[in-house]
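Review form for a predicted model. The reviewer records the input and the model, then writes brief findings.
Reviewer: anonymous (R2)
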Amino acid sequence: MLRKLFSLIDLFLLALLGVVLLASLLPARGIWVPITDRATDAGIVLLFFLHGAKLSREAIWEGARNWRLHLATLGVTFGLFPLLGIGFAALPFLPREFAAGLLFLTLLPSTVQSSIAFTAIARGNVAGAVCAASFSNVAGMFATPALVALLIGGSGGVSWASAETILLQLLLPFVAGHLARPWIGGFVARHKALLGRVDRGTILLVVYTAFGAAVVEGLWQRVAPASLLVLAAACLVLLALVLGLTTLLGRALKLSREDAIVLLFCGSKKSLASGVPMASVLFPAAQVGIVLLPVMVFHQLQLIACALIAPRLAARQQQAGQPGAQ
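Model under review:
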């Protein structure tokens, strides 16, 4: 299982790097700009429609009972993380061009698929992870734009135009997909790979469009290799802090082992799948590419770290002889 996860991480990382390289060498220009923009918009609408269809109403009501776990996860995701983001964005040695992107990273909701997968590997509360990750993403549709407007302001504030785009491209398709779940929920459940392909395909398309626009505006003239190393180090320290703090919080709240694992994985992770389309809505086209760099770096680091942690938690539980929630 661990080897399979690493292979998926590597393949998607290679695909992301390939798209960044393609956008750097052959960015969309002229008549291709509106074509790629419309294709990106269509991909985002389809992505959130399918996510809405995937969300189970029964899982929402069942998971809502575990309010301590979900409040803790939301508190970390939209409270602790943004506070850390404010501090990290103000670090004097962090390149200024990455400050807004690093702060934006901390305002995103949690991941869904990988949070659930790592919780299952670690023998945590899988049902709780499904609900916690789903709640985080629903809340993120409102919380992330509001926090961007509050904390980032002019460089990525929410105008009436962007609010309308959020409604039409993100929230409305999500609600429509959820309302259509009685008719298409079975199809989505039987074709989970389809949602994964739409996730990855939309991310790659938005990354190409965003980086292409940034390259045309002189992205690589503004970003030095040394700056990327500093960014990676900042993301690594941020991840280590959040992993440590979520572990301590789980103990302080006296959560069960299974629920503490949910808090660890759902609370410490940030969604590239949500971050990419949201960035394309909330920031000017020429700025989206550089804003997404911290999100992409953190995304890979969190997957690698969690892929190392989850099997160790499972092994520790097996040695202790405790039954795990599946």
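Findings: The mean pLDDT is 82.
Further findings: The chain has 15 helices and no strands.
Recommendation: see findings above.
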